[in-house]
Design brief:
Layout: E1 11-12, E2 18-21, E3 26-30, E4 33-38, E5 42-45, E6 53-57, E7 66-68, H1 76-79, E8 82-88, E9 91-99, E10 108-111, E11 123-126, E12 129-131, E13 142-146, E14 151-155, E15 158-163, E16 167-171, E17 177-180, E18 190-199, E19 203-210, E20 221-223, E21 238-240, E22 246-249, E23 252-253
Antiparallel strand pairs: 1-2, 2-5, 3-4, 3-11, 5-6, 6-10, 7-8, 8-9, 9-10, 11-12, 13-16, 14-15, 14-22, 16-17, 17-21, 18-19, 19-20, 20-21, 22-23
């Protein structure tokens, strides 16, 4: 009998790291140089980080490109002590890689991802698909499903969106997001911003803010103009942060959820929340 997801080979180190082997072929590239090429990576979850990272056997890493870090970020990454700078051509990337402080992972090297500008590689690939921001969590699921539910969105008592053809996006550990065709949204009440965020499951989002005087956070509406194939149905549709607006579904007003984004959904925030 196949193991249940909770019974998979997830292991825990004395330092509190969770990790498990991955069967995906992963490559990391800096410029035109392949720095990592591994068919046996492991996924690692740090105690204070909700998303996984990859660590790779040393034999699958171009260690000839790594130098002991000039200014190691000692103590970060769950108390890691060994950090490396990456040298490719004339470019040196500080603290681009490290080893976790665990005997079980001592023979593996982890890398910063380019979600931190200037501190990671340029491109990452799983099989032949480029991946962004951070590795996808194999225990997380994202489904985009066309629906005929009647969805209405209000901001400060004003009806901003009204549709019977939404796409519902179900994502593990997050509230349902309602993606609405632009024709069913009062775009005249919104203003586009220069804010963009990236999501490894959905792609790159663009944002809008409320034009009115309501005390609401900026960038509370977003859309994926070119979503990743797995969530193709949300292409070009608009979604609102449930945490900051009033949503009515089939005549029933939804409670505003409390999520990790709630803390950043404050009117005083100059940028607004990160992607959802």
């Amino acid at each position: 009998m196949s193991p249940l997801p909770t019974e998979r080979s997830l292991r825990t180190t004395p330092e509190g790291l969770h990790w498990e082997p991955s069967e995906r072929w992963v490559r990391g590239v800096k410029g035109d140089v392949t720095v990592v090429d591994s068919r046996r990576p492991v996924l690692v979850w740090e105690p204070e980080l909700p998303v996984p990272q990859y660590a790779f056997p040393r034999a699958d890493v171009r260690e000839d490109l790594l130098r002991p870090a000039k200014n190691p970020h000692t103590g970060t990454h769950t108390g890691s002590q060994i950090f490396y700078d990456l040298e490719v051509g004339d470019e040196r990337v500080a603290n681009a890689a490290w080893t976790f402080p665990s005997a079980e992972l001592a023979d593996h090297i982890a890398f910063e991802w380019f979600r931190r500008p200037g501190r990671g590689l340029d491109h990452w690939y799983e099989e032949e698909e480029e991946i962004f921001i951070h590795p996808r969590d194999p225990h997380k699921r994202v489904d985009a499903m066309p629906s005929s539910r009647h969805v209405q969105v209000e901001i400060d008592g004003t009806l901003v969106a009204d549709t019977r053809r939404p796409v519902l996006l179900f994502e593990t550990a997050l509230p349902t997001r309602y993606y609405i065709p632009r024709q069913d949204v009062r775009l005249d009440l919104l203003k586009p911003t220069d804010h963009h965020t990236g999501c490894p499951y959905k792609g790159t989002a663009e944002y809008w803010s409320w034009r009115g005087d309501a005390d609401v956070p900026p960038n509370l509406v977003w859309s994926y103009p070119e979503p990743l194939p797995a969530v193709g149905p949300i292409r070009g549709l608009l979604a609102f942060f449930n945490e900051a607006v009033d949503i009515v579904v089939d005549g029933e007003r939804q409670e505003r959820p409390v999520t990790p984004f709630s803390a950043t959904l404050k009117p005083s925030s100059p940028r607004g929340p990160e992607p959802a």
